Amino acid sequence: MKIVIIEDERITAKDLEQTLKEIDPDIEIMAVIRSVKEGLAYFSHQPSPALIFSDIRLGDGLSFEILKLVKVPVIFCTAYDEYALYAFQVNGIGYVLKPFTEESVAAALTKYNELTRANETEIGRQYEKMKDIFDTVKPKISSLLIHYKDTVIPIRISDIALFCLKNEVLTLYTFDHKRYYPNMSLDELEELLGDLFFRANRQYLVARSAIVHASSLLSRKMSIHVSIRHDDIITISREKSPQFLKWLQASPV
Question: Considering only CA atoms, which of 12, 135, 9, 13 is closest in space to residue 68?
Answer without folding.
Answer: 135
